[in-house]
Design goal:
245 residues, mainly beta, Protocatechuate 3,4-Dioxygenase, subunit A, five-stranded mixed sheet, four-stranded mixed sheet, globular, binds fe (ii) ion
Length: 245
């Protein structure tokens, strides 16, 4: 591949960098992991190119979880934050025009979902999901409240660190990657069995967004920076496709 006449070379997928599918410490992986050798299905033109999402479908408040579910004049309860960063390819170039979706628990650690059973209350002004399209340089930004940690039935007393789920769509719906972002300084990160499937501290650090005081809004919101890398040495860990795109 060339850009501006330079040969950037080809960076192959590295499946070994990603966690193993079978990781008994994360109990659900026992049933979810493949029991037989993988089969490869060739994709066809329709899976590679369509269907596509309509950019015009993005609403004005879709990137503002503080307000996109709130009654007029009200807002979600919780520490107000900005999450921002860039979607990058393997050479560090920004990926424009990608649909980014994100979902999270509320400030008490509870999801708005019919199967959610945690005793923390719902916030009537917080839905918990949003979306946006990355800009020309692959950049993105959205506003939300910092989610709370929550317990989950993996063992006798397991708690998820505060996190935000991310989905990235490519040019067709068959191209989808899913990952999670954690928050710098959260003491639950090293205790979490899901984080524990990552193979290195670097991989954990890559999923942990640092506080960025330069991007905070004084008297309003703190800022956390999270870049998503599709392939290469800095590739983000994706749950559904270990090798990335
Ligand atoms: Fe979650």
């Amino acid at each position: 591949m060339t850009e501006n006449g330079q040969n950037r070379g080809y960076i192959a997928r590295d499946r070994d960098r990603q966690p193993d599918a079978y990781t008994p410490g994360y109990k659900t992986s026992v049933k979810r992991s493949p029991q037989a050798a993988l089969l490869s299905f060739p994709t066809t033109l329709s899976e590679e190119t369509s269907p596509v999402f309509g950019h015009g479908l993005i609403g004005k408040l879709d990137n503002d979880l503080i307000h996109n579910y709130a009654k007029p004049g009200e807002s979600a309860i919780g520490p107000r934050i900005i999450v921002y960063g860039r979607l990058l390819d393997e050479t560090g170039r920004g990926v424009p025009g990608a649909l980014l979706e994100f979902w999270q628990a509320n400030a008490g650690g509870r999801y708005r979902h019919k199967k959610e059973g945690y005793i923390a209350p719902l916030d009537p002004n917080f839905g918990g999901c949003g979306r946006l399209i990355t800009g020309e340089d692959g950049s993105y930004e959205f506003r939300t409240i910092q989610p709370g940690p929550y317990p989950w039935p993996n063992g006798p007393n397991e708690w998820r660190p505060a996190h935000i789920h991310f989905s990235v769509f490519g040019h067709g719906f068959a191209q989808r990657l899913i990952t999670q972002m954690y928050f710098e300084g959260d003491p639950l990160i090293p205790l979490c069995p899901i984080v524990g499937v990552l193979k290195s501290q670097q991989a954990i650090d890559d999923l942990t967004a640092p506080l960025d005081m330069n991007r905070t809004l004084p008297m309003d919101a703190r800022a956390y920076k999270f870049d998503i890398v599709l392939r290469g040495r800095r590739q983000t860990y994706f749950e559904n496709r270990r090798e990335g795109l």
